[in-house]
Amino acid sequence: MSDRVNAIITIGGRVPADRLEDLIVAIEEDALGPDWDVTFLTRDEVVAHLQDGAVGVSLYAREVASGELPSVQELCVEVGLSYVLTHGGYGCEWGPARRIRRPGDEGDGVTCSLDADWGAACVTKGDILRLEFTDIQAVLAHLALFDDPHVPPLEIEGAGSS
Predict the structure, then answer these.
(1) Based on the structure, what is the number of domains in the chain?
(2) Does residue 28 lie within any of the structural domains?
(3) Residues of the domain holding 38
(4) Does residue 24 form part of some domain?
(5) Is 14 exposed, middle or buried, given 0-12, 13-18 or 19+ CB atoms closer than 10 A?
(6) Does 162 fall in a domain?
(7) pTM metric for this prediction
(8) pLDDT reported for residue 159
(9) Which of 9, 11, 45, 96 is at a distance of 20 to 30 A from 87, taking alpha carbons?
């Protein structure tokens, strides 16, 4: 059994109408809900939550393996959606972190450690070595990405307005 922590993903961008069903399935596979300890009871609730995504759509999950939401993350990459994934830490193994991935990003996007309360972005010794920061300006520029990791509104192409 893998290490399990809580996670939030906020997604945004344009979802082609023919991929909406795939997005709903990914949300179901990752057991995501509209808030902590709240689940969607019907697919209509999922669609209504997605259509209300004026500033991106946030989805929540408790006790997910390694803080990852593989179905939704993979679909976001395939469809070209932006996402910000925030997850808790697991004891002394690894700390809380936030990942930003936008269309066109290579790999998994950009990740930053967070303080113990999932709030402020911070840089650890491991981050400095892994990201090969050369000076304090590089560190500050990295942290600035996470001050307000903007996600565009979620738009379902061809969906009528409510």
Answers:
(1) 1
(2) yes
(3) 4-156
(4) yes
(5) middle
(6) no
(7) 0.89
(8) 63
(9) 45
